[in-house]
Amino acid sequence: MEKPFVLLLFEDCCVKMKQSKLMEKRIKMVTMNELIALCKNRGFIFAGSEIYGGLSNTWDYGPLGVELKNNIKRLWWKNFIEQEFNNVGLDSAILMNPTVWEASGHLANFTDPLMDCKACKTRIRADKLIEEWLFKNNKTVPFSIETLSNEEMEKFIDDNNIACPCCGKHDWTPIRQFNLMFKTFQGVTEEKKSEIYLRPETAAGIFVNFKNVLRSTRGKLPLGIGQIGKSFRNEITPGNFIFRVREFEQMELEFFCAPKESDDWFKYYRQKAFDFACNMGINKDLLRLRDHDKQELSHYSTATTDIEFNFPFGWAELWGIANRTNYDLTQHQKFSGQDLSYLDPYTNEKYIPYVIEPSVGVDRMLLTILCSAYTVEKLENGEERIVMKFLPKVAPIKVAILPLSNKLNDKAQEVYKQIAEQFRCEFDASGSIGKRYRRQDEIGTPYCVTVDFDTLEDEAVTVRDRDTMKQERIKLKDLIDYLSKKLA
Ligand code: ATP
Fold it and tell me: How confident is the model at residue 188 (pLDDT cuts 50, 70, 90)?
């Protein structure tokens, strides 16, 4: 039943007069369960195949999640491709000739140390078991777990009596190496010679197209080729929501340069990646740069840095930046028999280019943004509100149009159409205005535009700022200008 007009006017007045005031800001680290619940309820991320009982560790991005993801990808593309003088984009196939993976070393070496609990049959990654045990027991070790051999890991687990997190027993099989690539078959026969793989990273597609891009763009070094796309890894222990999944998206840049310039370019992209992360609204206090020491460096890398984020479950890699030397092109040259060297037109020097690779997962970046944005605030009236404090450029919805009554829908739709030409907006006509504001706070919408009965007379609307909760009356003719300035 529709509310009487007088009551609506009364509500309207209440909205204008009783603006909620902020008493206390509490930025607490959100727990994974709180985040998963918010993502599910508000339409960011749903559990995969849910109506069939789900498929563990798969996630589907809902209406808000896909907007957030697209904003992240668009901003990365703008920063790493469009705004960089030397860089271009690519979109290569997921399925590749299997020799690519022989050349890249993935067939032989893309493995994780796997062990089984003999008591409850839980499968676990030995290095992650140790890392989690260290984190839970607040202990540190002066070396990186990744550098330990299988024997050293087994000894560490035995010496510290590290138990199975599922059943609590200490009865492990020896560690064996497990290849993370997903295998499938091309064509109708399922036989050895038709075996192919889902790509475990997007970088290989860039390396095999290096000469194509150079030739077709008449490019000169230094030259960066970037792409965004799906990668697949049959992770032994996926988990922590979208942190470690088996199907994810990567944003990778392979920056080809002269060997003597590679140290400088490495430093450049290390800093650029860090700055980009901060500019996406990721909390700087929860970020750190961790340089790999000699022991941890891959045999082909002269420098590698991980940008780590302090997730609710501890510090973990968000972004890897590596100087990969000329390893990849040398390997692909060897296995393909094609000349992948570069002749410098100015110096006549011929060499195989070095590569600087900043590589980050879209899903992992989205998770860091969600964790950083989650804020709980105490209001003057004693209530708490959850606000996702996304930067406007990252926010899935920039403006919400809220008619105060269904009788105002036509006018509000006019306003919606006007704003939708410029900004991603949402129309929400149901529920009390207070509840609608709270919902918009929880999905991180920077501005709410309320259309009330006065709008019909004065051609003005009330604009509410998500963070300050202050409201301003703005003429419709000035609204786009006003929002453009605020959302810039
Ligand atoms: P980790 O040590 O966490 O397994 P990695 O060092 O193997 O990661 P890279 O191969 O360097 O990761 O991949 C580059 C980026 O891709 C990572 O920094 C991360 O952001 C993302 N990424 C890698 N594996 C996954 C995954 N299973 N799920 C989600 N994102 C991933």
Answer: confident
Band (pLDDT 50/70/90 cuts) for residue 223 is very high
Q: What is the distance between the alpha carbons of residues 145 and 114, in angstroms, rounded to a whole number?
A: 14
The pLDDT tens digits for 250-261 are 999 999 999 999
Strands 123-125 and 342-343: unpaired
Count of other CB atoms within 10 angstroms of residue 68:
27
Confidence band, pLDDT 50/70/90 cuts, at residue 15 = very low
- How far apart are alpha carbons 336 and 239 in whole angstroms? 37
Closest CA to 230 of 195, 197, 201: 201
Q: Which of 199, 289, 364, 369 has the most ligand 1 atoms within 8 A of CB, as the residue to mutate? A: 364
Distance 154 CA to ligand 1 centre (A): 24
Tokens 């590290």 map to which residue?
162
Mean pLDDT, rounded, of the chain: 92
For ligand 1, whether the C-beta of 226 sits within 6 Å is: no
pLDDT in tens, 282-297: 999 999 999 999 988 9
- Non-local (6+) Cβ contacts of 390 within 8 A are 68, 281, 369, 373, 396, 444, 446
Q: Output DSSP code: residue 463.
A: E
333 CA to middle of ligand 1, Å?
26
- Report the alpha-carbon angle 386-389-390, nearest 5: 135
H/E stretch holding 464 = strand 460-465
User: Beta 374-379 vs 354-361: how paired, if at all?
Assistant: unpaired
Instruction: Give the HSE-up count for residue 278: Cα atoms under 13 Å, Cβ half-sphere.
Output: 10
For the chain, first and last CA: distance in Å? 41
Q: Which helix (H) or strand (E) holds 36?
A: helix 32-42
- Burial per residue of 30-39, b for 16 or more beta-carbon CB atoms within 10 angstroms, e otherwise: bebeebbebb
* Ligand 1 in reach of 319 Cβ (< 6 A): yes
Amino acid code (one letter) for 206: I
Q: What are phi and psi of 231, to 5 degrees?
A: -130, 155
For residues 22 and 391, which has the higher predicted lDDT (pLDDT)? 391
Quickly state the pLDDT bin for 194 (edges 50, 70, 90). Answer: confident
Contacts of 124 (CB under 8 A, 6+ apart): 114, 115, 116, 117, 164, 165, 236, 237
Q: What are the structure tokens assigned to 175, written together?
A: 């560690």
Give the pLDDT score at 429: 96
pLDDT of res. 359: 98
Question: To test ligand 1's pocket by mutation, which of 250, 252, 306, 356 has the most ligand atoms within 8 angstroms of CB?
Answer: 250
